[in-house]
Design a protein that fits this description.
Blueprint (H helix, E strand, L loop, with lengths): L10 E6 L20 E2 L3 E2 L1 H11 L3 E6 L4 H10 L10 E6 L13 H6 L2 H7 L3 E6 L3 E2 L3 H10 L4 E9 L7 E5 L5 E6 L13 E12 H12 L8 H12 L2 E5 L14 E2 L4 H10 L27 E3 L1 E2 L2 E2 L1 E3 L2 E2 L4 E3 L2 E3 L2 E2 L4 E2 L4 E3 L2 E2 L4 E2 L4 E3 L1 E3 L4 E2 L4 E2 L3 H4 L4 E2 L5 E3 L1 H10 L1
Parallel strand pairs: 1-4, 1-6, 4-5, 8-12, 14-19, 17-20, 18-21, 19-22, 20-23, 21-24, 22-25, 23-26, 24-27, 25-28, 26-29, 27-31
Antiparallel strand pairs: 2-3, 6-11, 7-13, 8-11, 9-10, 9-11, 15-16, 30-31
Keywords: ATP-binding, Carbohydrate metabolism, Glycogen biosynthesis, Glycogen metabolism, Nucleotide-binding, Nucleotidyltransferase, Transferase
Function: Involved in the biosynthesis of ADP-glucose, a building block required for the elongation reactions to produce glycogen. Catalyzes the reaction between ATP and alpha-D-glucose 1-phosphate (G1P) to produce pyrophosphate and ADP-Glc.
Family: Belongs to the bacterial/plant glucose-1-phosphate adenylyltransferase family.
């Protein structure tokens, strides 16, 4: 009898969410990168989790390590809708020294190895390994089908990127049947795809295995003193050399509107984070957050609608080409090309231009902020001007190479002390 169930129903998603994301600087001082806010109401991790749910995967595990409280609290509040009696769940797996009192997660593969007994209890056939810190929409069922149809030991999710940009990634060399023939970490001369000499395939950090195969591989890797216990550095190159590794092109499973380009972003730097959020204010953004057929699930707070008040010259509460979340009060402030998260309160004569404002921020009168990222809970002093003089801004705040300014609460306190 042929098993006609979707492969996703016989699979689990294992989300790796332990990395700090140090390139986001002070934005990850208090939270791990997957817990960083994105898009007005979501967190970065919501994209991987939503992709899994929308693909039909209802058994998931989330491995955490660095400053995980914010992430764990978010998942408990926003992802508690699974029903264990239906064999669906999201297990949170902090690094808890389960193997040794001296041993935290030593690498991405070790995070799975230390939880082999838990994965065994899920009674699954396939495991989808996911990074929890990228922004994209993808149907993992398509990738699972390719994995089974091609009889692969591992299927690696790959982005098609210009060759000149591929040196920043792990790059796959493939043959005409998409079998991976080489895996090179940040090569100076990336191998081209068979169909286009100007393109290369970059690893997305997404892997599909049969659990039986991966389980044996992890046990062998754990006993290797020379291994860094990492999928990209150790396990995948070993399978490329000794087994069958297959590339899955993101274009084949990307969820998007017809004629829209594939959308994937690593918002791992301040500039990339600012740009991806501001892009959502475009007339037709490349990332469609309004698609009800592939929603991005998250914790939805109970807040009132956004409110705009005052209608006087130079004191008008307006938002132009912007996204304003619930609970915001725009009081006599001009907001342009900006994205405001929940419960942002602004005051008269202030101006926000191309700025990303995280939740619970208060902006006092006559502040002018341009190309800023403002961390959660910051109180912007009256008359503060940021984004008009980069040299002056850099004395008190974090200014990126491309001119994005990060403002955190400790920075504001230091600015006040210097006045």
């Amino acid at each position: 009898m042929v098993d006609t169930t979707r492969l996703s129903q016989r699979s689990m998603a294992f989300v790796l969410a332990g990395g700090r994301g140090s390139r986001l600087k002070e934005l990850t001082d208090r939270r791990v990168k997957p817990a960083v806010y994105f898009g007005g109401k979501t967190r970065i991790v919501d994209f991987a989790l939503s992709n899994a749910v929308n693909s039909g995967i209802r058994r998931m595990a989330l491995a955490t390590q660095y400053k995980a409280h914010s992430l764990i609290r978010h998942c408990q509040r926003g992802w508690s809708f699974f029903r264990a009696e239906r064999n669906e769940f999201l297990d949170i797996l902090p690094a808890s020294q389960r193997v040794s009192e001296e041993m935290w997660y030593r690498g991405t593969a070790d995070a799975v190895t230390q939880n082999i007994d838990i994965v065994d209890s899920y009674d699954i056939e396939y495991i989808v390994i996911l990074a929890g810190d990228h922004i994209y929409k993808m149907d993992y069922e398509v990738m699972l089908r390719q994995h089974v149809e091609q009889g692969a030991d591992v299927t690696v999710g790959c982005l098609t990127v210009p060759r000149e940009e591929a040196s920043a990634f792990g790059v796959m060399g493939v043959d005409a049947q998409s079998r991976i023939t080489s895996f090179l970490e940040k090569p100076a001369d990336p191998p081209a795809t068979p169909e286009d000499p100007t393109k290369a395939l970059a690893s997305m950090g997404i892997y599909v295995f049969s659990w039986k195969f991966l389980r044996e591989l992890l046990i062998r890797d754990a006993e290797d003193p020379n291994s860094s216990h990492d999928f990209g550095h150790d396990l995948i190159p070993d399978i490329v050399k000794n087994g069958k590794a297959v590339a899955h092109r993101f274009d084949d499973s990307c969820v998007r509107a017809e004629e829209a380009p594939s959308y994937w972003r690593d918002v791992g730097t301040l500039d990339a984070f600012w740009e991806a959020n501001i892009d959502l204010t475009d007339f037709t953004p490349e990332l469609d957050l309004w698609d009800q057929h592939w929603p991005i699930w998250t914790y939805s707070e109970s807040v009132p609608p956004a409110k705009f008040i005052h209608d006087e010259k130079d004191r008008r509460g307006v938002a132009i080409s912007s996204m304003v979340s619930g609970g915001c009060i725009i009081s006599g402030t001009e907001v342009r090309n900006s994205l405001l998260f929940t419960d942002v309160h602004t005051n008269s004569y202030a101006v926000l231009d191309h700025s990303v404002v995280l939740p619970n921020v208060v902006i006092h009168r006559s502040a002018r902020l341009r190309k800023c990222v403002i961390d959660r809970g910051v109180e912007i002093p009256t008359g503060l001007v940021v984004g008009e003089d980069p040299l002056e801004d850099a004395k008190h705040f974090r200014v990126s190479d491309k001119g994005t300014t990060l403002i955190t609460a400790p920075m504001v306190e230091a600015w006040k002390a210097a006045q």
